[in-house]
Design goal:
Layout: E1 2-6, H1 11-20, E2 26-31, H2 39-48, E3 55-59, H3 65-75, E4 79-82, H4 91-94, H5 96-116, E5 121-127, H6 151-170, E6 173-179, E7 182-183, H7 192-202, E8 205-209, E9 215-216, E10 219-220, H8 221-233, E11 243-248, E12 254-255, H9 256-267, E13 272-276, H10 291-297, H11 305-319
Parallel strand pairs: 1-2, 1-4, 2-3, 4-5, 5-6, 6-11, 7-10, 8-13
Antiparallel strand pairs: 9-12
Length: 322
């Protein structure tokens, strides 16, 4: 297979390229290397990918349709995994235009390129945030997701609708990946695991929203890329629909304070708590029903929060010379 991974310098993209290296003829990665968070971390991820002999990186932005089409025309991809996006629920409240440009315009450009250059399968990052204030748990791919409570969630829901339309009209396979709170080595600095660890080592308070009354389906990065890789390589039945969406989560929510204690234990240091009310756009709970993923791939995420926390903190200490 010839595979394109967008957002290749990102957290999931970087890990996925390493995982796909053994099953792809060639992998092209693109990323615009924006400064939403520390660009040096993105360069460090790319440096680690230099050992992947069948990987080629190009700096490119999916919002630039002309540049994107030139890449598609040059390589004739079989599979595209679109992970490029403006991430973060809270930042979408401050800078909504960035989300429309990257997540709506950029995704439209990806769909159009897949259509015109005969891509067989498009997989794309969606998010658990599409479930909004859904009270039914665990969250199932069969549940209604018509009530997002952040612009980020709305853009991800729009991606699913657009992909459904293109699969129906232009007859290529699309697979949505609803990621649930991904964490692990090389993670994003704006996410809880990274922020908590950094603050604990610096002796600064960590923000505990909703007074700690939150739970998340934390999913370790290796489990994430194992599932995505399995979906990339999966041979669908002839009678299957062209459009699919899967929950990519651990399948067991962790209470926020249990998560904090796992990080404290891994860091061997107590955190200072700063209790705050619920943040706008946030939800109190996420919980993935992963049965559909298991039936399609046989994958069951296995890394528990205690083990994952130890691995992350070990990486953090090594990377930042703590």
């Amino acid at each position: 297979m010839k595979i394109l991974v967008t957002g290749a310098a990102g957290f999931i993209g970087h890990a996925l390229v390493k995982r796909l290296a053994s099953c792809a003829t060639s992998i092209v990665g693109i990323d615009n290397l924006n400064d939403y968070y520390d660009v040096e971390l993105k360069h460090s991820r790319l440096k680690e990918l230099e050992s992947v002999t069948n990987f080629q990186f190009m700096k490119a932005d999916i919002s630039d349709a002309t540049q994107l089409n030139e890449i598609f025309q040059s390589h004739q991809f079989d599979v595209v995994v679109n992970l490029a996006a403006q991430a973060g629920v809270r930042y979408s409240i401050e800078n909504p235009s960035a989300y429309i440009q990257a997540n709506v315009v950029g995704f439209f450009n990806i769909l159009e390129a897949c259509r015109h250059f005969a891509v067989k399968h498009l997989l794309y990052a969606s998010s658990s945030s599409v479930y909004g204030l859904n009270k039914k748990t665990p969250f199932s791919v069969d549940d209604s997701v018509d009530n997002p409570i952040s612009l980020y969630a709305a853009t991800k829901k729009s991606n699913e609708l657009m992909a459904h339309t293109y699969a129906h009209l232009y007859k290529f396979k699309t697979t949505g990946l609803r990621f649930f709170t991904v964490y692990g080595p090389w993670g994003r600095p704006d996410m809880a695991m990274f922020k908590f660890t950094k603050s604990i080592f610096e002796g600064k308070p960590i923000d505990i929203y909703n007074n700690g009354e939150l739970s998340r389906d934390f999913t370790y990065i290796d489990d994430i890329v194992e599932a995505v890789s399995a979906l990339v390589q999966r041979s669908p039945r002839a009678d299957e629909p062209l459009y699919h969406v899967y929950n990519i989560g651990h399948g067991s929510p962790v209470k926020l304070m249990d998560f904090v204690r796992a990080v404290e234990k891994a860091a061997d240091k107590k955190a200072i708590y700063n209790y705050l009310p619920m943040q706008a756009g946030d939800v109190s709970q996420t919980w993935a029903d992963t049965q559909a993923l298991y039936e399609a791939t046989g994958c069951r995420p296995a890394v528990k929060i205690e083990e994952g926390s130890e691995r992350f903190v070990s990486w953090f200490k090594n990377y930042y010379n703590v």
